[in-house]
Design brief:
Methionyl-tRNA Fmet Formyltransferase, Chain A, domain 2, six-stranded antiparallel beta sheet, alpha/beta, seven-stranded mixed beta sheet, 7 helices, Rossmann fold, 15 strands
């Protein structure tokens, strides 16, 4: 088959490699290079880097909602376009450019977690399983007909980074197995139940603020879901305290004010939540390196009675 690939971040790279194994990839479309880091160095997205290594033609349009872009895609005479975490909404003209249209591998079990950050929100919300949905694209936000689903478990210690890596591998296998079947007409589309849809909006830095008023399990899920970005944090004495890892200490029971440090000694640090409590495992005081929470107990460090947040 002749195929076009749309994708930008590291999550999409395994799918690009799989597509290159089973199809003639006539074009790879990704977002423009971005200035990153403190030095604002112009950096190519992971999909571009891998596509060039594979000898594929890369295109980075600044505008995709113009007639010229759809016309160019049409001229490629592709059978299908595969979209994996491209990061932009595509017009009807673009979606209809390939002979069989555009298909997408989305990082959630649709219709739950439609949007830009499905992997993160499934972890933040304390879900026990997630997966990828292979779907036919339409003009809506992840609203197209579903073709296949692949479900995996979320472990109690899995972070968003862990799940993104695993799901990218599930997506790779999905492309290899399901895309050829779609092109052959062997898959039956299934409508989504819109009443079951949830939104997975893009995360912002402020989302990392730990919600101590929630139950202990959701506080732990929040910390895992914010890793690696934007990172979970709280405030202590006006300074930022990064929270890298916590574990549930008590699932239920009302303690003190949410965020209050109940125990702080050389053996453990326990913090009250809206329901239950958590043990701080790894934290990072402002301007310092990452440490075991028990190493921060002393002097000007954490003390019993502190209220975080």
């Amino acid at each position: 088959m002749r195929a076009i690939f749309f994708g930008t971040p590291e999550f999409a790279v395994p799918s690009l490699e799989a597509l290159n194994d089973i199809a003639e990839v006539v074009a790879v479309v990704c977002q423009p290079d971005r200035a990153v880091g403190r030095g604002l160095e112009l950096t190519a997205p992971p999909v571009k880097k891998r596509a060039l290594e594979l000898g594929l033609a890369v295109h980075q349009p600044t505008k995709v909602r113009v007639p010229e872009f759809a016309e160019w895609l049409k001229s490629l005479n592709a059978d299908v376009a595969l979209v994996v975490a491209y990061g932009r909404i595509l017009t009807k003209a673009v979606l209809e450019s390939p002979r069989l249209g555009c298909v997408n591998v989305h990082g959630s079990i649709l219709p739950k977690y439609r949007g830009a950050a499905p992997v993160q929100w499934s972890v933040i919300d304390g879900e026990r399983e997630t997966g990828v949905t292979f779907m036919k694209m339409d003009e809506g936000m992840d609203t197209g007909d579903m073709l296949t689903k692949h479900v995996i478990a979320i472990g109690e210690d899995d972070t968003s980074g862990d799940m993104a890596k695993r799901l990218s591998e599930v997506a790779r296998d999905c492309v290899r197995e399901d895309l050829p079947r779609f092109v052959k007409g062997e898959l039956t589309p299934q409508k989504q139940d819109d009443s079951q849809a949830t939104e997975a909006r893009l995360l912002e830095k402020t989302d990392g603020n730990v919600p101590w008023t929630k139950g202990a399990e959701l506080v732990q899920s929040h910390v895992r879901g914010m890793s690696p970005w934007p990172g979970a944090y709280t405030k202590r004495a006006g300074k930022t305290l990064k929270i890298h890892k916590v574990r549930v200490f008590e699932k239920s029971g009302k303690n003190e004010v949410p965020g209050k440090v109940l125990v702080a000694d050389k053996s453990r640090v326990i913090v009250a939540c809206g329901e239950g409590s958590v043990e701080l495992v790894t934290i990072q005081p402002e301007g310092k390196k990452q440490l075991a929470a028990t190493e921060v107990v002393s002097g000007r460090g954490l003390v019993e009675g502190d209220v975080l947040g």
